[in-house]
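[job 0412] stage=fold_complex status=start
inputs:
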Amino acid sequence: MSISIHSQITAAVYENANVRPRDERRRALLGVRGLRKRYGPRLLFDIDRLEIATHSAYVLTGMNGAGKSTLLRVLGGLERAEIDSLRFACEDVLRVHPYPRALRRAIVYVHQHPILFSTSVADNIGYGLVVRGEPPAAVRPVVEAAMEWAGVAHLRDTDPARLSGGEKQRVALARAKVLQPRLLLLDEPTANLDGAAREQVIALIPTLVDAGSSVVIACHDRELIGLPDMQRFKLRDGHLEVRSPAPSDPSQPPRHS
Amino acid sequence: MSDIPAAILRAFELLFTGDADLWRIVWVSLKTTIAGLVLATPPAVLLGYVIAMYRFRGRRIAIWLAQAALSLPTVLIGLLLYLLLSRHGPLGGLHWLFAQPGIVLGQFVVALPVLLAFTLAAVQGLDERYAETAIALGASPIQVMVRVLHEARFGVMAAVLSGFGRVISEVGCALMVGGNIEGQTRTITTAIALETSKGEFAQGIALGIVLVALALLMNGALMLLQGDAHTVRERA
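[job 0412] stage=fold_complex status=done
writing structure:
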C-alpha cells in the first residue's frame, strides 16, 4: 500500500503554500478545506484551510479548550466534524464518514495519556501489524527494532500497567511507528513528563520525521515548539493560524526560550 | 427440634457415603445450569458489548428491559415458559415441559439478563481509550470487540459467575418448568424446597452444603484468575 502512495506522491505537484523548496522530498500530504466542529449550538472551531506536507513536523498550539485535541481526533478519525473537502496524498476523499480505510491505515492518533493493552510491551507494539494480518515472523523483528528505537527493550517482560508515564508514552510512540504512518498525530506527548523522561520523548520526534512520517503535535512544550524545522499552527478563537517555521540553519543553535 | 442435630449428622453421612440420589440431583442441577450458561453467554456478551459501544435506535429501551429483567421473579419466568411449553402452548410440540430441555431453556432465560447487564456495565466502565487505541491502530470492528472484551475480561467473568449463582440458586423457574421429578428434573433447589416441606431435613442440609461449596469454589477460581489484577491504588 505504501508503494502506491509513494508513486502518487512522486507524480504530484507542489500545491502547498507551506512547503518550502529547500526540502525536495516535501509534497502535499493532507489538505482540508472548511473544517467545522460544533457541540450543539456552540462552534468550537471553523478552519478554512489546513495543509500538511510530507516529511514535515508541525506543532499545534492554542489555549486549553481551544480544540487542539478535538482537531487531532477529527483528523485521526475518532470524532466527526463537518468537512467541505479533503484531499489525501493528492487524491480527493469523497466520503469522510465513515472514516476511509486508506486514511485509517495512513494516519495514527496517539492519546495524551496513552493506554497500553494488558498484554506485554512487545504485543502492544506489534498490535497494529497483527490486526493488519502480518505474520508473526514478520512482526517480531519490526517490534524488536521499535523497542530499541524507543529505548524500551529492557521493559519487554514488564507488566504494561507498571510502566511510568514516560515509558508508556515511548511504548505508544513505538506502537504507532511500526505502522509507518504517513501522518502521526500526537496529543501533548510531553504533558506531565519532566526531566529525562521528557527529553527522551522529545528526542524521538525528529527521528519519526526522518523515518518518513509527518507529525502534528498538539502541545504547550516550548522545547518541542523550538525544535528545528518545526512549523506552527495556532488555534485561536476557533480559527487556525499558520506561523512561519523556526530557522533550521545549522550554523545557528535552535532557539530555546 | 431435637432431630436437627440428627439431620445434620445424616446430611454428612449422605455427602460422604456417595448417596446416589443426592449426587444425581447435584448432577442434574450442574448439567442444566452449565448448559443454560453456555447457551446464554455468547448472545448476552455480544448484546452487552453492542449496547455499550454503539448508538442505535432502541438502545435505551434495550438497557431498560435488561435492567428490569434482572428484578423479575424467576417464578414468573417459569410461569411464562410453562404457558409456552404446555401441551396447548405454542411450543408444546417440543415436549420440553417437565423435562431437562425445559429447565435448560429456563436457565437460559434467567441467565441472559444477568450476563447482559453485567457485561454492559463492564464494557461501559472500561476506559474508552482501549477501543479508540485499537481503532486508531487499524483494528476492524470485530478486532476491536475482541480487544475490548479482553480488557474487560474480569468483568465478563464476573458476569458469568453471577449468572451461575443466579441460575443454580433459583427455584421458581426450575420448579414450574421442571416439576421436581425424581431422577429427571429434581434440582438442588427444588429438592431443598420440597423435601424440607415434607420434613426431610437431612437431604436439604446436604444439598445446601453442596451449594455453599460450589459458591466458594467458583469465586475462589475467579480470584485465582484475577491474581495479577492490581488494586486501584497501584493502577493510579
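[job 0412] summary: The interface with chain A takes residues 127, 129-130, 132-140, 143, 147, 150-151, 228, 230, 234-235 of chain B (CB under 8 Å).
[job 0412] exit 0
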